[in-house]
Amino acid sequence: MLDAKQKLLNRISEDRELLVDYLRDFIRIPSPNPPGDTRDAARHVTDLLERRGIPFRIIAPEGTMPNIIATFDCGGPGRHLALNGHIDVFPVGDGSGWTKDPWGAELEDGRIYGRGACDMKSGTTASIFAFLYLHELRHTLRGKVTLSVVSDEETFGPWGARYLADHHPEIFGDCCLNAEPTGRTTFRFGEKGPLWLRFTVRTHGAHGAYVHRSASATRIAAQVIGELDRLTELPPSELGNLTSTLDAAIATADEAWGAGAGQNVRRITVNPGLVRGGVKVNMVAAECVFEVDIRLPNGLDDADVRREVDAIVSRYPEVSYEQILYNPANWTPPDTEMAEVVRANAKAVSGIEPIPVVSLGCTDARLWRYKDIPAIVFGPSPIEMGGVDEYVETEEFLDVVKVHVLSAYDYLSRPAAPPDLLRSEADR
């Protein structure tokens, strides 16, 4: 490695205890979404920026969900790099099933446990420290860096990155580097698209012994859910070179995310995640409401699926539905400059060369891709993401820090493109 990059690696090694302690303190600050109150977690970030003398802005269209933006210019002309991460995490409910304190950040056998350990307080920590290390070297670099640390990501809510995208386009830049979970063996250049639908079933209802008097709303719901499951049989679109790239990643995706993950990248998945119906066991249910999370592969959109859903619902006069969320599937060319930089630095750091994959889940990186801005994601393993005893391996966390610091350094060390190749502000 070049001498400057080796010095960065040495600095990260010297800061090992600092990095681990910062992450553990971050995890100890509850920030579940819902309800989404991230004020204390945001203060953990701004306190560090203040100690390092870094100016920042707080953008909080919803007072309990602040977003933090910090930026600096480098010593010469170049590209604008965006670093992005979120500070809200999944809820833990009453903590049932956990063998560790969800907010304890216990360090045991090389793992840091707690809600948000892998999704994504470790990744956000990597982005924050990449920003800080590069700030120290800013006079030797080219271009500009913007860090956005946001709230309201876990529910695709309107008060985090979505708000910034609509009202603060200065966060976008020319490329985004994000540290959502991926594992060492993969980096993400695209995502499937979530389509959330809410169904309502209404019938007359009756006494439980008088099933001849009324259809059951819960029974009808079960039938509709069964029919919706057949959406998984819809064939994926042929996407040329993208198809071959995804097919080549099947085995690696299975290894990184669990058996079956690779096939699910190219197919529709259906999850009836929430079902509420009935009042009492000895009553025929008069109402049932259920919400379904449908994930669309690249090449399919909501209209393709809605046609099939409409056909199913038309057979059940008691059923209506509404769309409550849709984000189109998206992707960045898997050989874009940042992809190649991340790939090379990951291999140099861990000896493992990650391969390009499309994510099963959805991240804020999609907002950059919707604007045709390259967005590459590389972070820790997602295996326990959102589950009980969520954890991040300490060494993997430190590797993510190294890869992000080195990749950002490489991107900002290269000369700016000729003016005619740079997109204008209006194009952005």
Write the SSE topology.
Elements: H1 3-14, H2 16-27, H3 39-51, E1 57-59, E2 67-73, E3 76-86, E4 107-108, E5 111-113, H4 117-136, E6 142-150, H5 161-167, E7 175-178, E8 186-191, E9 193-202, E10 206-207, H6 217-228, H7 241-248, H8 250-257, H9 261-264, E11 269-277, E12 283-284, E13 287-296, H10 302-313, E14 319-326, E15 330-331, H11 337-350, E16 355-359, H12 365-369, E17 375-377, E18 391-393, H13 394-413
Parallel strand pairs: 3-6, 3-7, 7-17, 8-16
Antiparallel strand pairs: 1-2, 2-6, 4-5, 5-18, 8-15, 9-13, 9-14, 10-12, 11-13
Helix pairs in contact: 1-13, 2-4, 4-13, 11-13
Distance, first to last CA: 34 Å
Helix content: 25-40%
Instruction: Name the CATH superfamily assignment of the largest domain.
Output: Zn peptidases
CATH architecture of the largest domain: 3-Layer(aba) Sandwich
| Biggest beta-sheet profile | 6 strands, mixed
